C-alpha cells in the first residue's frame, strides 16, 4: 500500500509542467539517496534509475563477492553463497548488481520517503511561483476574483496561483465580485512564512504605463516614449510623452481619433481623467503644458528652490488649480517644480480689494471667494450668480448677501 502511495506522489510530481526535467531528476535522486544513507549508511554503491515519462524508478545495489567467512560490510559485500542464489556463474571478486525493492526499506522508511518527496514538490512549486512572479514585477497580469474580503481581494491566475489585490492598491471606485476578471500589475513579491506572497496594484503609475503600451502601438514599438506619469487613482492623471520621429504627434497618437485609443484606458481606470502632455526640455513650456487647460501669461523660475511662479488672469486661476487643487498638484509632481499661482490684475482705479469689506463680509467668505481667483469686488461681480454658488460651494443666501454689499459699493 505504501509503495502505491509513493508511486502516486511520484506521478503527481511528474505532472508538474513548470519544473524542468533536470531539476526534477536531481530532486528525485536526492530524496532517494537520503533514504539510502539512512538505511545503509552510504549511497556510494547504489545506482538510481528514474523513468520520468512512466513515473516510476529502480534502485540497484553494487556489491563485491567475498568468501562466506570474509563478509565485513553487508552493504558493500555479498557472500559467494548468496551471490550464487542470484546467478550460479558468480565468482569471488566479481561485482553483483541486484535490485533493491521498496518493501525492503520498511514501512516507516517508505512513509518518510513519501513525505520528503511531497515536501520537495511543495518547495519546488513555491520556488517556481516566487521566481516566476519576481520576474513579472511591473507587468500586467489578468486573473479571476476568487474571494472578496474587507481589506483585500484574492485572485487566481490561469495556473490557480493565489494573488492578492489589497484595498490600498485598488482604484477607489473599483468594485469586484467573485468570478470577475481583473487586470493589475505585479507590484511586490515577498516571502511570508516561506510562502510566496504576490501583491498586485491598480493604482501604481506603472499600471497606467503598461495600459498605454498595450493600447498604443507607437509606444509599444518605441517610437513614442513615456517620460513620466503622475496620478491620483480614479480622479486624474498626467502623462508626459515624447516622440523621436518628427512626423508623429505624440499626444495625437496617444489620444487617437475622437479619443478612440485612450477611451479603453479611461474605462479600465474607472473614468480617470487623463491629460496627455507633449514633453519638452524647455521648462517654461513644459510647465505651461502641464497646467493645461489654464492659459498662462508668464512664468518665473526660481532654480535654486525648484519653484515656479506662474502668473495668469484671475479667471484662469481656478482652471490652473483644479478641483481640490488636483491640477496644480499633479503639474508640480510632473515637472518636479513647486508651482505657485499669482493673479495678474489689470489696473482699475474704481475696483476695490475684497479685504476692504471685512467689516461687512465674514473672513471665511472672503477666503472662499479668493480661492476661486476673486481678489476684488469687480472680480466677483463679473461672475454670474449661479457660477459663483457652484464654484465657491457657498449657500445661495451667502452669495446674495455678498452681491448686495458689493453692488451697493458701486451704486
Automatic annotation (TrEMBL):
Residues 138-203 form the S1 motif domain. The keyword Transcription applies. Keywords: Cytoplasm, RNA-binding, Transcription, Transcription antitermination, Transcription regulation, Transcription termination. This is Transcription termination/antitermination protein NusA. The gene is nusA. GO terms for cellular component: cytosol. GO terms for biological process: DNA-templated transcription termination; transcription antitermination. It is found in: Cytoplasm. PROSITE patterns: KH_TYPE_1, S1. Monomer. Binds directly to the core enzyme of the DNA-dependent RNA polymerase and to nascent RNA. Participates in both transcription termination and antitermination. GO terms for molecular function: DNA-binding transcription factor activity; RNA binding. InterPro entries: KH_dom (IPR004087), KH_dom-like_a/b (IPR015946), KH_NusA_2nd (IPR058582), KH_sf_prok-type (IPR009019), NA-bd_OB-fold (IPR012340), NusA_N_sf (IPR036555), S1_domain (IPR003029), TF_NusA (IPR010213). Belongs to the NusA family.
Amino acid at each position: 500500500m505504501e509503495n502505491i502511495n509513493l508511486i502516486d506522489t511520484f506521478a503527481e510530481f511528474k505532472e508538474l509542467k513548470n519544473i524542468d526535467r533536470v531539476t526534477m531528476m536531481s530532486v528525485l535522486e536526492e530524496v532517494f539517496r537520503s533514504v539510502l544513507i539512512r538505511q545503509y549508511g552510504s549511497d556510494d554503491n547504489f545506482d538510481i534509475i528514474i523513468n520520468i515519462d512512466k513515473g516510476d524508478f529502480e534502485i540497484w545495489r553494487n556489491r563485491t563477492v567475498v568468501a562466506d567467512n570474509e563478509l565485513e560490510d553487508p552493504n558493500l559485500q555479498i557472500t559467494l553463497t548468496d551471490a550464487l542464489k542470484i546467478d550460479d556463474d558468480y565468482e569471488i571478486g566479481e561485482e553483483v548488481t541486484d535490485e533493491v525493492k521498496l518493501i525492503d526499506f520498511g514501512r516507516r522508511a517508505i512513509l518518510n520517503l513519501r513525505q520528503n518527496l511531497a515536501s520537495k514538490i511543495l518547495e519546488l512549486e513555491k520556488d517556481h511561483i516566487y521566481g516566476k512572479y519576481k520576474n513579472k514585477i511591473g507587468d500586467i497580469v489578468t486573473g479571476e476574483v476568487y474571494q472578496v474580503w474587507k481589506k483585500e481581494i484574492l485572485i487566481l491566475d490561469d495556473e490557480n496561483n493565489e494573488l492578492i489585490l489589497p484595498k490600498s492598491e485598488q482604484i477607489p471606485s473599483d468594485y469586484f465580485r467573485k468570478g470577475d476578471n481583473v487586470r493589475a500589475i505585479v507590484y511586490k513579491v515577498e516571502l511570508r512564512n516561506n510562502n510566496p506572497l504576490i501583491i498586485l496594484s491598480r493604482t501604481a503609475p506603472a499600471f497606467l504605463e503598461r495600459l498605454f503600451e498595450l493600447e498604443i502601438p507607437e509606444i509599444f514599438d518605441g517610437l513614442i516614449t513615456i517620460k513620466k506619469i503622475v496620478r491620483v487613482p480614479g480622479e486624474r492623471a498626467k502623462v508626459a510623452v515624447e516622440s523621436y520621429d518628427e512626423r508623429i504627434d505624440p499626444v495625437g497618437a496617444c489620444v487617437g481619433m475622437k479619443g478612440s485609443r485612450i477611451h479603453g484606458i479611461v474605462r479600465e481606470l474607472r473614468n480617470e481623467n487623463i491629460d496627455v502632455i507633449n514633453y519638452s526640455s524647455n521648462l517654461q513650456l513644459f510647465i505651461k503644458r502641464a497646467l493645461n487647460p489654464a492659459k498662462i501669461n508668464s512664468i518665473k523660475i526660481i532654480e535654486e528652490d525648484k519653484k515656479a511662479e506662474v502668473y495668469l488672469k484671475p479667471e484662469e486661476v481656478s482652471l490652473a488649480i483644479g478641483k481640490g487643487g488636483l491640477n496644480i498638484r499633479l503639474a508640480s509632481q510632473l515637472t518636479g517644480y513647486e508651482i505657485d499661482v499669482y493673479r495678474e490684475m489689470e489696473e482699475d482705479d474704481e475696483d476695490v480689494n475684497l479685504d476692504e469689506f471685512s467689516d461687512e463680509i465674514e473672513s471665511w467668505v472672503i477666503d472662499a471667494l479668493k480661492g476661486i481667483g476673486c481678489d476684488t469686488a469687480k472680480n466677483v461681480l463679473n461672475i454670474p450668480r449661479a457660477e459663483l454658488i457652484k464654484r465657491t460651494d457657498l449657500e445661495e443666501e451667502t452669495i446674495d448677501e455678498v452681491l448686495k454689499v458689493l453692488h451697493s459699493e458701486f451704486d
